[in-house]
Design a protein that fits this description.
By secondary structure, this protein is an alpha+beta fold. The chain is 15% helix and 17% strand. It has helices at residues 5-17, 97-102, 133-146, 189-197, 220-223, 334-337, and strands at 48-49, 53-56, 59-63, 80-84, 87-91, 153-159, 167-173, 257-259, 275-276, 287-291, 309-314, 317-318, 324-325, 329-332.
Amino acid sequence: MRMGSALKTRVSRMSTAWGLSIDALSCGAERTQPPAQEPAPDAAGAARCNDTHCLVPAGTFIEGSPPTEAFRAMYSEQQHAVTLTHALEVSRFETTQEEWVAAGFLNQSGTIDNGDGDRDCTEQRCPVGLITWADAVSFANKKSRAAGMPACIELSDCVGEEGAGLACTTIRQTSASYYDCAGYRLPTSVEFQYLLRAGTTTTYYSGEATNPRDDCYFVDHLAATAWYCNNSEKRTHPVGQLAPNPWGLFDMMGNAAEFTASAPYTEDRQSSSPVTDPHATLPDGGTYEIRGGPMNAWPTLLRSADQGAPAPALPGNVGRGVGAGFRLVRSIPPEKVSKWK
């Protein structure tokens, strides 16, 4: 796999900004939540939402970025068509500390900062932070089992406390294709970009970059949709305070960066060839991609095509930082799509 100097610089900057391997920020001033926007349809059809989840249809989208997009990664953002053959139930919000504690996990959000004063907020509706990739998987497994569904990833040879710094040497996906699992799970990186874009093709789902530069600067449409370096005041914020994306999903950019089930910088993203259901087999290298940018991210790191940062998940080398969170998805079979509500 080729990694250009620009990509190396970006990974280094993100790792520094996110502490151990990811970092972000603390709890903020109350804001009035804007009225929920009706999800807009794309070529695949419209998402349908209730108060907590959206059903996103199967469909095809263009992953990656055009050669003209400023600050793109040359080798890992090649534009190509991706078809996802499964509908998705996706949480409208990042997993909150209230949900985390209700599941019986220890909440350590806000107990430390990242060395630069960035800290997780501590209100119940704040995204959970200071967790590992395996912690997020454990939460998904517990939620699946409570609902009578299968766990999608089995963890073994683990060290640390479940929900408070867990790291595992061995993982096993429980279905031939990760997408065939009926339980709650982390999205793959390609699913994350599909959900993030929500039918849009612009640099950000909220609009285009204007006079882009590689530092922290004000972008009016980002200020309305994302907690990032210019408006976050060095902390995460309770979920759902800013405007959602066109499919009704909140905080897909900024606030907490979100763990995925994919390896970083995979070869399919270096090709222009179309693919169907990529990343159906989980990586075994112990490093996963975290996407969406934390609340201290510069605008360049909130681009829809940005490949995020690597989050190591092995004992002795585990990514666990301020502003690292997640949201869960669930594959919905075709015969159940019309009945979803």
